[in-house]
Write the structure tokens for this entry.
Amino acid sequence: MAETDFPKMLVQPGEYPAEWYYDGQVFAGECDLRPLRPALAVVHGSMKPDGSAVRHYPRTWSESYLTGRLRSGHDVELADCHVSAWPGALTDGEQNQVGARWAIVGVGTRSIPDRRYDRIRLQLSGLDEFFLTSPVGSYVWPRQPIEGEQREGTETLKERIAGQLNPDRNREWIQEGITLRCGYEHTMPMSGYQIAATFAPIISIDSDSPLDLDTWISHWVQPLLRLVTFATRTRQDVAWMTVHRRVPDDHHPLGEATISGQVFGGGISQVPFSAQRPEPRQGPDRPLLSLPDLPAPLPQLVRRWFELDGADSHPFVELFRLVLFTPDLPERARCLYLTQALEALHATEHAEEDADRERLHVERRSEVLQSLGSIGLDQATMKFIKKNLTPRPLASLESRLKPLIDDVDAGLEDMISDLERGGIGQRLAEKGATSFPDMVRLLRNHLSHGSQNYPAHELKAWSEALARVAEHHLIRLLVGESPGPR
């Protein structure tokens, strides 16, 4: 990922003089727009005058929105604001410090109806690897003539520069009122001394029904970011993001104009980048998915990720996400999280079967205890039997892992064979483990109870095998069917 002047940001990060509008008044102040953190502002003056003789500071309150304008002419709108009023430099003045969850900055953004937007554009780090398609299909460049070589009349020596764009560089999906585009935008600055073409991978999403920013982020940006992180096996972030709204404009030839605003807030690095050839990665670190080989249309995958990872998060996705988004997780913790995630997946998908089995077990247990009670066993014996005849049916980790592992393509068999023959596998076999799922059960017990530890470099291979199983089933959940071999 290479930083660049293209695509150009609407507003550069920094601190700007501003005026703020509140309760029909105009206040001088500043606006601090920095990468990767919430927007900040300072408002000079008494926003909420306190007429009491003795004032207590700080006075704090919340505002849903605070609007203003930068000296450059850009409107600025802060959302979810926390205001702290402090004594100011002037005798009767105050200085109000404002922290906001996010800010939208652009020309005319305060006039957007209902603070809803029908388009967003953004870059995510890792898009070069996720797109995996070069923007240029072919090009011709003149070679330097050999000294003394005759130039006139030689067809092969004609000085020409030509290029052809890759017809597969852009992709578009239209589903349920959403148009999602992944592609390359470009700029070609030229002069008598220089010709250059710069491309940038960009995602744009249009909605037939305008959405507020929180909905855009929760339903589309965050699931898309996590999907790209999963696909590339590397934690990614939002490089920049803009929101747009078409509004009627009698002076525009098309009868409407587009108002655009740049979003500032935590998690947005404000670093645009140009396209670069991705470094090839092989083995367990290779990218898992890319645009050319998606198992389903991208909007479907994003919507499904939102469903799995939304307010009622799927327990498997919630646990597996901890592994995906914590690259420096110790191998011991990684192995335990992956094992727990797979156990949760099987339990969730077989909840009805488990409930039926538990109901039958409870009924049968009651019948057995009644039969034993009728033959006149002493009280101590009955107490022992009730205590040790479990109220719920026994369920082993091995029985949950086996069907999940068996569903994975044959490429996992060699990994499992190597693990079974390796140092940890041999030690687990000596303790009675008879299969790979049984080894994982025993390994989980050792790691969670602290009864035995293993070197991190040996555990890494076990984590990679469990991650392979988890990846397979996450794709299955996203697609709705078992994916083919990868």
Q: What stands out?
A: The chain has a mean pLDDT of 89. The first helix runs from residue 127 to 131. The longest strand covers residues 198-212. The two ends are 26 Å apart (CA to CA).
